[in-house]
């Protein structure tokens, strides 16, 4: 029996039911339905901590999936698993690949910032403050992108800018937010995209 049937409530019962109903009624190809099934099974395994099984399902999901926007959510979750496994280089690679296909994933920017911040802390602990500050600078850039996409959902990032005394960088976000909102309007959001977005938001690194 498919894992998705055994664990129908793996994230949220309501969203799972809605996703299944919409998947039946919206026009999708057999390949898209197959990809979504693998994606859903991957998230089920991921929610249980079965990362190897989750990765296998996500990799299978990328084969029939041709829509770049849909693929971005799969790549994001692969990056999230590598993050959880401490494989930060691989995680950054998959977050980059996800953002190449969908630049409106604030959770990807946030997770990349967290990784860069962690590497900065590690560099400072090892006595290399210059490299540490470089990582912090990179973290700031990613957090600025995350805040630009979701200004009201980035309290931790705002606090980080204050703690690290990066007030000027934080203030410059007012201009970034305006342009970002304009760009959002031209991004197509189909029902299938909405399902993937709804499910992917159940996972985040922090």
TrEMBL record:
Membrane topology summary: Peripheral membrane protein
GO CC terms of this entry: chloroplast thylakoid membrane
Any Pfam family matching the protein: TPR_1
Principal location class: plastid
GO biological processes: photosynthesis
TPR repeat windows: 35-68, 72-105, 72-105, 120-153
Subcellular location: Plastid membrane; Plastid, Chloroplast thylakoid membrane
Keyword terms: Chloroplast, Membrane, Photosynthesis, Plastid, Repeat, Thylakoid, TPR repeat
InterPro entries recorded: PSI_Ycf3_assembly, TPR-like_helical_dom_sf, TPR_rpt, Ycf3/AcsC/BcsC/TPR_MFPF
Role, per record: Seems to be required for the assembly of the photosystem I complex.
PANTHER family in alphabetical order: CELLULOSE SYNTHASE OPERON PROTEIN C (PTHR44943), TPR REPEAT-CONTAINING PROTEIN MJ0263 (PTHR44943:SF8)
Family in the record: Belongs to the Ycf3 family.
NCBIfam families: PRK02603.1
Name the record gives this protein: Photosystem I assembly protein Ycf3
Taxonomic lineage of the native organism: Eukaryota, Viridiplantae, Streptophyta, Embryophyta, Tracheophyta
Gene: ycf3
């Amino acid at each position: 029996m498919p894992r998705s049937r055994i664990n129908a409530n793996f994230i949220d019962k309501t969203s799972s039911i809605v996703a299944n109903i919409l998947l039946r009624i919206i026009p999708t190809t057999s390949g898209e339905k197959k990809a979504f099934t693998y994606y859903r099974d991957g998230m089920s395994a991921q929610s249980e901590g079965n990362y190897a099984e989750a990765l296998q399902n996500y990799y299978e999901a990328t084969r029939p999936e041709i829509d770049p926007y849909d693929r971005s959510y799969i790549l994001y979750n692969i990056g999230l698993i590598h993050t959880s496994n401490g494989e930060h280089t691989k995680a950054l690679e998959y977050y980059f690949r996800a953002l190449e296909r969908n630049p409106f994933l604030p959770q990807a920017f946030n997770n990349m910032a967290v990784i860069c911040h962690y590497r900065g802390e590690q560099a400072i602990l090892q006595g290399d403050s210059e490299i540490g500050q470089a990582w912090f600078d990179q973290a700031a850039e990613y957090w600025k992108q995350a805040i630009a996409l979701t200004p009201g959902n980035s309290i931790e990032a705002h606090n980080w800018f204050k703690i690290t005394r990066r007030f000027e960088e934080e203030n410059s976000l007012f201009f970034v937010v305006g342009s970002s909102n304009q760009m959002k309007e031209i991004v197509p959001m189909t029902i299938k995209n909405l399902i993937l977005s709804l499910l992917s938001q159940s996972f985040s690194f922090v």
